[in-house]
Amino acid sequence: MVDVNKKKLRDLFEKSYKDFSDAIFRYCYFHTSNREKALDLSHDTFVKTWEYLSSEKGKEIDNIRAFLYRVARNLIIDDRRKKKSSSLDNLLENGFEITGEESEFIIKENEFEAKEALKAVQGLEEKYKDVILMRYVEDMSVKDIAKILDDNENTVSVRIHRGIEKLKSILGENEKQ
User: Fold this and answer.
1) What are the angstrom distances between the C-alpha of 140 and each of 5, 12, 111, 136, 146?
2) The domain 107-177: what is its CATH number?
3) Is the pLDDT at 148 greater than 90, yes or no?
4) Distance CA 169, CA 157 (A)
5) Is residue 137 a contact partner of residue 147, using CB atoms and an 8 Å limit?
6) DSSP symbol at 101
7) DSSP string covering 102-131
8) DSSP letter at 70?
9) Which residue, 62, 67, 71, 151, is the most exposed by fewest CB within 10 angstroms?
10) Are 106 and 137 in contact (CB under 8 A)?
11) Greatest pairwise CA separation for the chain in angstroms
């Protein structure tokens, strides 16, 4: 006999995976620029979420989307703290660009501009990169971003504005070159 609560929990988790797995992967990919690492981080995000949901303490999550992004963000931060172990990571950090199927998500129209914009976003400080990606790539509201980052909405709005200004500056400098 299946416990009703466990079934509800499993259904919630399966729906969350179906609804958000691609978005969590994109979020991880934008932060790592490494397809394999992004896959690992997005997988770990869902494993940790399942462990949290199914723990015997009966923990509940008000906003599963915000929770998933917070877990992914924490895993990305933890990953950055680790030493870089492979030469591919070093190549990526030094400007080596991935081509092929990993770049399929780039909009085909204006492909050059999209690549330049993504490169510019990668050059932003983390606090601006996070909010820009969540707002304009993942199409999140300021309220959702604030919840994920455990910050207030005004601070998030200011970071979005300043991040856009910094992007304009970076892209303006690239055009002059």
Assistant:
1) 30, 20, 23, 7, 10
2) 1.10.10.10
3) no
4) 19
5) no
6) G
7) GGTTS-STTHHHHHHHHHHHHTS-HHHHHH
8) H
9) 62
10) no
11) 68
Mean pLDDT computed over 168-173: 78
3-state secondary structure of 61: coil
Nearest CA to 26 out of 8, 41, 11 is that of 41
Q: Give percent above pLDDT 70 in the chain.
A: 73
> Which two tokens mark 121?
């976003």
Span(s) in the chain for CATH 1.10.10.10: 107-177
Report whether 72 contacts 27 (CB < 8 A).
yes
Taking only the tens place, the pLDDT of each residue in 63-107 is: 889 899 999 999 988 888 774 444 455 555 555 555 544 444 443
CA atoms of 147 and 145, how far apart (whole Å):
5
Q: Specify whether the CB–CB gap between 163 and 132 falls below 8 A.
A: yes
- Vertex 46, ends 45 and 49: CA angle to 5°? 90
